[in-house]
Amino acid sequence: MSGPGRASAAFGQTASAAWLFLAPALAVLAVFFFLPVGAAFLMSFTDLDLYALGDPSTVRFVGFANYLEILRSATFWQALGNTAYFVAVGAPLSILASLTTALMLHSKVVWLRPLFRLGFFLPVVTTLVAVAVVWRYVYHPAYGLLNQALGWLGIGAVDWLGSPTWAMPALILLAVWKNFGYNMLIFLAGLGTIPDELYEAARLDGATKWQEIWHVTLPQLAPTTTFITLMTVIGYGQFFAEPYVMTSGGPLDRTLSVVLLMYREGFRFWHMGYATALAFLLFAMIFALTLVQMRLRRHREG
Amino acid sequence: MRRCALALALTALAACAPAPDALVFWAMGAEGEQVGTVLAGFRQEHPEIKLKVQGIPWNAAHDKLLTAYAGGVTPDVCQLGTTWVTELQALGALAPLGSRVKADALVRPDDFFAGAWRNNAIEGEVWAIPWYVDTRVLFYRSDLLAKAGFKEPPATWDAFLTQAKALARGGKAGAYLPANPGGDPIPLYMAWQQGADLIDMGTLTGRARAPAFARAVDFYVRCFAEGAAPRETGGLTNFYQAFAAGDVAMFVSGPWNVGALRAKVPELTGKWAVAPLPATRAGGPRTSVAGGSALAVFARSKRQDQAWALVSYLARPDVQRAFHALTGDLPARKSAWRGKALEDPAARAFYAQMQDARPVAALPEWELLATKLGAWVERAVYGQLTVEAAMRGLDEDIDRALEKRRWLATRRQARP
After folding, report:
1. What is the distance between the alpha carbons of residues B175 and B58, in angstroms, rounded to a whole number?
2. Closest residue of A to B378, CA-based?
3. How large is the ipTM?
4. Cβ pair B4:A245 closer than 8 A
């Protein structure tokens, strides 16, 4: 037998072994992921609703009607705008907060580092529902901590969650505070991998502290930052729990997110066809956004 | 961020443990916590029935019922909010009870409040038995009203506006009215008082553009525009404290707040009272909504006789009275209202209001329609749209929401 033949036979063997090892995971994925997703995709072309739950013969195939109705609905565009607002403001703020705290905790000037690290990470592991109760008091227009603090600066009381203008910034602040600790840990891990020689070299060249951060730390952190940006944008694009527990999407639908709209249509009004169509639209949009981000990164690196 | 929804789903699943030969009864919220006490008598009368009561929180109940139906794990007997009876009946989830009512001398339809009974009678059949009723009345701070020179609570909405404006001084809200969807649809009650309604049940289309309906919404919007009620109500997070502090002098709500106010702000007792809803014109009807809970038997239950025995037991006047003493819920049976506890002025005011209370439209889509009404009224309240434009938008939404219902109606006619 010639060389290449033997190699391909060996490859065939390892490949089948690989499939064997993958089989349980693939089976689980197929049953609990691909099958439901496929069913949901079909569902998005029907008007499956409450009536269909009782009598399946009332399901009608409606083609793209769900998708068209969504695109024509003002509420959807409002929810999409809100989600974009939340991502565009919340994600950069969150990453900046994570990076800043990580840099401070990594530097040797900060005292009691483990305590601060714990403090910054605690909100991440606390349930949002419990956090929301406390934050509702923080935002209370008359007795809230935030308005008290603003009062010392001479700024009048704001009804944070009751005002169409301020409800979203209030939720963004909450989300950033709640989530930045997680990315901070990832940044800290990334900072730990930067070799000290680079800093030594920079110092020998007479670099200031800021120049060190700008020319050594940030470029070395680029892969970590890319990963964090991607995950944060995806996570913030699906924001749901904050308006669900704090504002129910109001006032004036100003904090209604796409996922909250989906939940409301699906589980409150049982418009399953409409809700699944919405889910696939959201998927397509987040997917497109991710592609753009990856393309940009490749462009920068290439 | 999705952890919360996941946790909800998991608790819902965990609560579905099957009980092989027990009669399963789902009760919600405070009723679920308290009903065990009155069921002692039932256990004594029926030692052969293994009764299992499962308490379910109100905010998870609706989703859980639909999920249980889809999964085929419905209970035998269930407490249902009145608007859900229509929904589950449309699904075919409920067992018809008409013939059982006829055979049971203890359950007399004419002894129940008419509005409550009518709500569960769909297509000439009885689908649930009213358990307790509730309606909405006006809660007011009698001391603050007196101090402002008003001896009586407002009998008309115009008087309500005048009084609320007079009380809204120095950062205080005269009245609390829900500006956002999710609250009581008070403009709907105002429209009922003028003979208008949200939906034309014959054609299954929206009637919000009708002049009387638009007038009611217009008045509601004025309450906010003229400063009688605040649009932004973040300050009312702790509502009972706000009422005690005099930040709110009037609001519209249901019987549970009688018990809640007595328990949470006892120092306020004697300084507040309840009155029937104001009328649109002096001497006119003071119509409010008829709500509450009913008891239904599920069609899939294998213990229909036992299930009915439980429903019939809970519908007895003396059991209803005992339950009222425990929960403060208002008995659905008129004969249960004889007794000391129910002579209290607050309970009497609710009794009076129940004489002029009507259920909302018996449509499975009600939850959606009420949300749409709230959302379009909100836009008018915030001045984004004129009332006329908002009502046009509302009618379009209603017509779209009821499209399936209309299609089903024509299909049923086509197939005799």
Report:
1. 27
2. A252
3. 0.80
4. yes
